[in-house]
Design goal:
- The complex is a heterodimer of chains A (114) and B (116).
- Chain A has 114 residues and is mostly beta strands.
- The termini of chain A are far apart.
- Chain A is globular, with a radius of gyration of 13 Å.
- In chain A, the strands form two sheets. In chain A, strands 2, 4, 5, 6, 9, 10 and 11 form a seven-stranded mixed sheet that branches.
- With 116 residues, chain B is mostly beta strands.
- Chain B starts with a strand and ends with a strand.
- In chain B, strands 2, 5, 6, 10, 11 and 12 form a six-stranded mixed sheet that branches.
- Chain B is built from no helices and twelve strands.
- Chain B is 0% helix and 53% strand.
- Classes of the chains: A mainly beta (114), B mainly beta (116).
């Protein structure tokens, strides 16, 4: 079946603007994760969804970051008033209870804040 | 909190040779999962291999195998018969078994180059 998809692939924005990043998980996967990959910080966990609820949002770096998931499927990560330090690749992953909850990743969105 | 350490930032291997990528981790848990992911320039993170901590047998997937030393908290990846397509960043990752799903904790990654 289809893998995890993310859009847009690349996003360039100006400092202070809001951006929305989208993730479409593998069909039937109940768990969805957002990670951020940057040169200085490596791969960091942001938030985890189980169904539509977010039992772990401990990785969100500030209140400018928020995420939601609707219908147990698509998720949107929103960054308000973007800053240059938000520039990174944002990766989404999904998993099911099968295969030891192995997470399968999308191709990521590269965000550049000018 | 769990930590994952990949101390070698870069490695190089001759095509058709064998290379071993190192990873150590720190945890107080007894049940967990360990993973190696590959990230080529396309950015797509691809699962290479998975190891359940309760299994004593080392996982193997074709040319990829691990050396899992639970007491030493070591989880190295061996790539046999290296191919040009193996060139990528490789990340070691830890996941707790607590709860049905939990986040991955990654190492910093290692860049593997393959010489023709």
């Amino acid at each position: 079946g289809a893998g995890v998809s993310q859009s847009p692939s690349n996003k360039v924005t100006e400092k202070g603007k809001d951006v929305e990043l989208r993730c479409d998980p593998i069909s039937g996967h109940t768990a969805l994760y957002w990670y951020r990959q940057s040169l200085g910080q490596g791969l960091e966990f942001l938030i985890y969804f189980q169904g539509n609820s977010a039992p772990d949002k401990s990785g969100l770096p500030s209140d400018r970051f928020s995420a939601e998931r609707t219908g147990g499927s698509v998720s949107t990560l929103t960054i308000q008033r973007t800053q240059q330090e938000d520039s990174a690749v944002y990766l989404c992953a999904s998993s099911s209870l099968r295969y030891s909850g192995t997470q399968y990743f999308g191709p990521g969105t590269r965000l550049t804040v000018l | 909190a769990q930590t994952v350490t990949q101390s070698q930032p870069e490695m190089s291997v001759q095509e058709a040779e064998t290379v071993t990528l190192s990873c150590t981790y720190d945890t107080s848990e007894s049940d967990y999962y360990l993973f190696w992911y590959k990230q080529p320039p396309s950015r797509q993170m691809i699962l290479v291999i998975r190891q359940e901590a309760y299994k004593q047998q080392n996982a193997t997937e074709n040319r990829f195998s691990v050396n899992f030393q639970k007491a030493a908290k070591s989880f190295s990846l061996k790539i046999s018969d290296s191919q040009l397509g193996d060139a990528a960043m490789y990340f070691c990752a830890y996941r707790s078994q607590t709860g049905a799903n939990s986040k991955l904790t990654f190492g910093k990654g290692i860049t593997l180059s393959v010489r023709p």
